[in-house]
Amino acid sequence: MIKTRHFIILMACFLGICFPPEAEPVNRKDLRETVKQGCQSIPEVKFQEILKEYLCKRLGKEKSDIIVSRLKVFGNRPVPAGKISFQPFQKEKRRLEGYVRLIVIISVNGVAKNRVKLSGWVDAFESVVVTNHNIKKGTTIKKDDLYLTRKNISHLPPNILTDMGQAIGLTAKNNIKADSVLKKWMLEKSPAVDKGDLVTIVAESCDIKVTVPGRSLERGSLGELIRVQNSMSKKEIYARVISNSTVVVDF
Asked: Domain range spanning residue 159?
């Protein structure tokens, strides 16, 4: 009987050591909440602000000049708690109107933690130069020929003129219709010398200056190199136009 009692006590002790009381089940929801407490999420509206600020800085525009739509954010995962900073940049240097893609490096306390990709449609508005009426080929542009109007430049080519000073004094290369947005290729410098014009060819070196009569073999604007012919030797040379009657040989 005594042996039986000792055996039961020993078994109870053995079972108590090998089989501890069952632990309470883990609440997965509580575990997720505990993890979340050490992280922070970034709302998509913040990325829209980042994209808009980046565009304003690069394009030199006010926020009212830019509209961002159809924004898509890829890879926006929670990051650890701490001070967040953003570093946006373009992987490929493309035009910042129309469809734009951007990469944002997210750092926490100065350490990079995530890389987010952004894409969206950007409408940028700016004043552009427009013709006031029909302009014929060869016409020298004056201020009265132009006006400024605000347009969505996202739908326009990149070589448009945004300042009337860029066009005044230039010549129309072709006929231009009224209300046309002016582009750089539509205009050229007004020629100071036309083909066949008589000119004075100046050659100067140190204290020696020689002038001879000549004839222009092509049109040329101020500062341009053109072919001219020495009327005395009939030799063709290149000279720089400095006025409507004088060209200078560069040495």
From this structure: 125-189
